[in-house]
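Researcher: Let's continue the batch. This sequence belongs to DNA-binding MarR family transcriptional regulator, and it's 150 residues. Same format as the previous ones, please.
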Amino acid sequence: MASPTELLDQLLALSIMIDKDLTATLGKDGLTLARTHLMWELHRSGPVTQQRLAAVLEVSPRNVTALVDGLVASGHVSRDRHPEDRRAFLITLTEHGSAAMAAMAVRHEEFAEALFGPVSARDRAATARALDHARTRLAALMDEHHREGS
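Model: Same format as before. Here are the structure tokens for DNA-binding MarR family transcriptional regulator:
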């Protein structure tokens, strides 16, 4: 049986491998992980304000502005005045951005199948429970740490 430290080490190794793969794959399209995260949110939610993106991505409005600037320059998103609030901008995926996200969604499904398809349904269920527990526990530990640090 694996110890808690061995499990954490495996998660960290997996995280590093996934990060390397994502960085290389996204870099081919001129994207970064942060820009892709923003686009993924637009893909899921549709057009939103920069303020809403900052809240969802949990970053500063200045950070979102920089991300959006880069994505406007690459043709992935457009920034237009909000039709109901002249002070706000609405960020929308362009055709290029929508096509990129559709292709990414297909690759995501294919990668998930390649990685976990051969795993039995029983083992996938156990893995899902363990990962959900780890995610929930990590969130609680982070909240506790930030409260102590405040």
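Researcher: Any comment?
Model: The two ends are 38 Å apart (CA to CA).
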